Amino acid sequence: MKKMMTVIIGIVLTANTVFTYTKSTHMVKMRDGINLETDVYLPEGLDSTSVPAVLIRTPYGRERQKPELIAAFTDSSSYALVIQDTRGQHSSEGIDSVFLDDAWGDKKDGY
């Protein structure tokens, strides 16, 4: 575990790209009408309106996620980053049902 943490810290510290982005916050409507608060980080200087994205859905608060750290592991000039609070967490609507509404759960929030 110590070696893995050393590798991760080394990658982060030696990353030579600066993640410059434009952030916007949206309430994204799910299939059942519940809105989930979502931050979208678009790379600055983007020359396209359609780019692949890394999606992170978290019950721990989207503000706690560090886009700069995540960018160290991706080509941050080519990917958008989307971070979403799950149902009932922080500013998202609905009832907290972590893992029950995701992916193949009843509401399929992550489809």
Q: Quick recap of the structure?
A:
One of its GO terms (molecular function) is hydrolase activity. The chain is α+β, with helices and mostly antiparallel strands and 111 residues long.
Task: Kindly describe this structure.
- By secondary structure, the chain is of the alpha+beta class.
- The chain has helices spanning 2-14, 67-71; strands at residues 21-29, 35-43, 53-58, 80-85.
- The protein has a single domain, classed as Rossmann fold (3-Layer(aba) Sandwich).
- The protein has a four-stranded mixed β-sheet, with no helix packed on it.
- A hairpin with a 5-residue loop joins strand 1 and strand 2.
- The mean pLDDT is 77.
- It holds the Pfam family Peptidase_S15.
Summarize the SSE layout with pairings.
Layout: H1 2-14, E1 21-29, E2 35-43, E3 53-58, H2 67-71, E4 80-85
Parallel strand pairs: 3-4
Antiparallel strand pairs: 1-2, 2-4
